[in-house]
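Supplementary Note 3. Input sequence used for the single-chain structure prediction.
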Amino acid sequence: MISYDNALGTEKNTFSLLSFLKEKSFKPKGIYVHVPFCQIKCPYCDFLSGIPPEDELTKKYFLALKKEFLMYSEFLDFSQCSTLYFGGGTPGLFPSYLSEFTEFLRKFADFEEISVEVNPSSHLLPSDFSFATRVSFGVQTFSEKHLRFLGRNHSFYDSISCLENFSPHFSVNADLIFGIPEQSPSEHLEDLKIALNSGVKHISTYLLTPYENTPLGVMVRKGLVKLPEDVEPFFDVQSYLEEAGMIRYEISNFAFEGNFCKHNLLYWDRDDFLGIGVSSWSKLGNIRFANTKNMKLYLSGIERGIFPVDEIHHISKKEELYEIIFLGLRKVNQGVDIFNLRIDTEKFLKLLFERGLMQFLNLYDGKIKIKKKFLSIADFVIREIFDVLDCITFQSSEIPERKSSSHL
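The predicted structure, written as discrete structure tokens, is reproduced below.
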């Protein structure tokens, strides 16, 4: 049973969460498990990661994950839970722990998709990950020069070997980064071609972002590193994947039919999911909540039977509207059904036209979508749409400050 001890100073959050969980039977559709251990910390990574994978700490952490899940199992119904995602960090360092933990969770849920993030290494064997259905490799680039800049500890040959060896057995994804200093669009295109020729069924492409508290962010802020100013040419060459038969089902994600990441679709569709582990986020009903980012506090809290929740956020109607717009427009083929937004649709469309935003959008059958040639400025377009929503949903000339959600 759960203790009501306040050892972490999180009594308020613990009781708030308990009260919320008791209100009704939530049925999360997915489980995210955060594994923060890495052999090295990449200079661009803003996730909680890079914790050295020491044996004793690793064992203690995976035991804590089980205890945390059991705490939630007293309140949540996992009968509709169909996806399990191991993220990090580098969860692929611990296939035996992941396999054991998966079997433990199977007592509560019937998973259709089990994903695990893995860094390329010559030591990996497909048989080690037989518990999974989907393996996502952090390739980032096949260029040795750009790999060194990104601080990666694998080689071109490690990536090729892993993709070719794993692709016959799993739905394999390759993560690729673009917009690296001195990287040309043609080099990014070459990365796409190599990945596709290696047999992958899914490719994720991410713009290199200088997050504020990362070494990369510091170097960019000091002028030591310069990132490309125009990223549109990188988006242009990504059309190669669609020409090869892949579907761009989200701005950053391409896959062959039947290989979409079901777990990530839960996020984009705003379905409920449970996150366990240090720093993990969850969404249940109209709240999002996050675990502490402090490993010691996380472990001690679980040991005492306390939810190690550091933040609880109730999603307002306005924020819900923002999320529907933001996430819907990222699903480039589906878009947003404006007649389901519960707003003044006529005024909304009128303002979109008046502000010149319809030049960036397609409107068909009641849905708005960002035109593919403007995906490189999607964030700008979405911010402008938010401003339009502010004019509709608030009568006062003083518009409340819009809050962003870093976990989206």
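The two ends are 32 Å apart (CA to CA). The domain at 11-268 is CATH 3.20.20.70 (TIM Barrel).
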